[in-house]
């Protein structure tokens, strides 16, 4: 079940990205939302899938392929830096993505992050870190401390914890509640519709700590490697 | 409170500018909708605000001459106002002062500080709010905001305070435009009037901000969002 989303901008901020766009996948021109690109190490190859790479039912897909130059290479895609703070009115974000089944592509060392967070190595935000296929829910505060919870017991994941290569996975986070610093106190992460992890009443993010909608892909195999990740859509919501 | 808006183009138009965007504040690249920027006199400084609860912009007039400001707009003359239900809403804050700090937000035909001849818009004249409903073919109608508990004397914006404005129209007049227009400020009814606009009179979505202090002056306006909708039976 999906969380309700606003009909009017007076009800909340809504940002949808389905990667149905014209040709450019360049800086400040990625997707409908014209995401800024921040290279991590060496630049990825970024392309929209066409022809035989497309899948029925998956409309508009962005493929990020790491540079194959050095360990740690990747890209972060973001809206205006520090444009948001997260208060107690709640919100959500969601991403449908896959580790494409391509010869040489790996689950190990293949990583993404997405959500509301402040940079490629976040100190602030509510976000999901998929570390070598394992989704981890984070609420991080530079002022007050970090909390996290790792996915477990999801029937569509390998051993209940790890994304399956070649399979689309839908990861959704809802956050809500008021902690003593004014930010959200709780969050739940759903993977393919199943509750995968939760942080209930433990978030200490302050409502003056800045972040932005963002997602990223990079590899940390220990050396140069070209690893792929496909993004079908992302959406972001903050209640007003 | 949840609001109904057209979700499918088959049901009508729903245009949303929430100022959640990438870094750009350039002409034809401002906000989610890539709005055009038109300078009035000398160029304002426009920035995307950080640490917002959903995206906002900050506009500061040039402090070069009386009348300086800017217009943010969609495609010129791209729209007409139909009968049936529609409206627009926005949230604005006069950041630094009330006097001489003016804006015009809604749908109208003027891309300067000169008052439009066609359109439905909210007019802020030194903080004093009115609803304007003008027709070039027929006559102009207007109503000043009154009795709003969050406004000074029920009429005037409070400095450094966010105010939410919502304009809704309904019905069809004898020339195809809307018949009745209402203004709500911070959720309270602030005024209403009839409408004589013809459905062939052209407008565009518009934010105009300028100062008329009589000399050079930097005045500041923040805008959180602007949306426009019109229900249309297209089948």
Describe the structure.
The complex is a heterodimer of chains A (240) and B (235). With 240 residues, chain A is mainly β. Chain A has a single domain, classed as Sandwich (Jelly Rolls), CATH 2.60.120. Chain A has no helices and 16 strands. In chain A, strands 1, 3, 4, 7, 12, 13, 14 and 16 form an 8-stranded antiparallel beta sheet that branches. In chain A, strands 2, 5, 6, 8, 9, 10, 11 and 15 form an 8-stranded antiparallel beta sheet that branches. In chain A, β8 and β9 form a beta hairpin. The model of chain A has no long low-confidence stretch (mean pLDDT 95). With 235 residues, chain B is mainly beta. Chain B has one domain: Jelly Rolls (Sandwich). Chain B is 0% helix and 44% strand. Chain B is built from no helices and 16 strands. In chain B, the strands form 2 sheets. In chain B, strands 1, 3, 4, 7, 12, 13, 14 and 16 form an 8-stranded antiparallel beta sheet that branches. In chain B, strands 2, 5, 6, 8, 9, 10, 11 and 15 form an 8-stranded antiparallel beta sheet that branches. In chain B, a hairpin with a 2-residue loop joins β13 and β14. The radius of gyration of chain B is 17 Å and the shape is globular. The chains are: A mainly beta (240), B mainly beta (235).
């Amino acid at each position: 079940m999906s969380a309700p989303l606003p009909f009017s901008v007076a009800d909340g901020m809504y940002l949808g990205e389905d990667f149905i766009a014209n040709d450019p996948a360049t800086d400040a021109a990625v997707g409908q939302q014209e995401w800024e690109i921040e290279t991590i190490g060496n630049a990825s190859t970024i392309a929209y899938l066409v022809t035989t790479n497309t899948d029925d039912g998956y409309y508009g897909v962005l493929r990020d392929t790491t540079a194959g130059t050095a360990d740690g290479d990747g890209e972060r895609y973001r809206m205006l830096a520090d444009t948001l703070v997260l208060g107690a009115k709640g919100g959500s974000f969601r991403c449908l993505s896959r580790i494409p089944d391509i010869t040489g592509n790996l689950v190990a060392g293949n990583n993404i992050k997405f959500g509301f967070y402040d940079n490629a190595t976040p100190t602030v935000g509510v976000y999901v870190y998929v570390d070598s296929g394992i989704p981890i829910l984070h609420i991080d505060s530079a002022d007050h401390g970090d909390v996290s919870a790792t996915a477990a017991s999801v029937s569509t994941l390998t051993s209940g914890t790890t994304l399956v290569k070649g399979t689309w996975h839908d990861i959704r986070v809802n956050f809500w509640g008021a902690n003593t610093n004014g930010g959200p106190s709780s969050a739940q992460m759903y993977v393919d519709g199943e509750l995968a992890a939760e942080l209930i009443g433990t978030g200490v993010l302050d409502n003056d700590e800045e972040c932005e909608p963002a997602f990223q892909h990079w590899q940390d195999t220990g050396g140069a490697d070209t690893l792929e990740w496909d993004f079908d859509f992302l959406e972001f919501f903050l209640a007003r | 409170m949840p609001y109904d808006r057209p979700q499918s183009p088959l049901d009508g138009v729903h245009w949303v500018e929430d100022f959640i965007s990438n870094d750009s504040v350039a002409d034809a690249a401002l906000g989610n909708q890539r709005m055009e920027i038109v300078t009035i006199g000398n160029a304002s400084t426009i920035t995307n605000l950080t640490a917002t609860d959903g995206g906002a912009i900050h506009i500061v007039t040039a402090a070069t001459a009386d009348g300086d400001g800017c217009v943010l707009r969609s495609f010129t003359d791209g729209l007409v106002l139909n009968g049936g239900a529609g409206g627009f809403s926005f949230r604005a804050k006069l950041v630094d002062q009330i006097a001489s700090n003016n804006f015009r937000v809604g749908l109208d035909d003027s891309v300067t500080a000169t008052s439009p001849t066609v359109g439905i818009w909210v007019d802020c004249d030194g903080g004093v709010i009115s609803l304007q409903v003008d027709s070039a073919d027929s006559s102009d109608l207007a109503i000043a905001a009154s009795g709003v508990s969050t406004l000074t004397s029920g009429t005037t914006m409070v400095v450094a305070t966010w105010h939410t404005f919502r304009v809704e129209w309904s019905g069809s007049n004898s020339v195809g435009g809307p018949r009745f227009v209402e203004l709500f400020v911070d959720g309270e009814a602030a005024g209403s009037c009839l409408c004589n606009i013809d459905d062939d009179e052209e407008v565009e979505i518009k934010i105009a901000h300028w100062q008329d202090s009589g000399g050079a002056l930097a005045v500041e306006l923040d805008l959180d969002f602007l949306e426009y909708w019109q229900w249309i039976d297209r089948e």
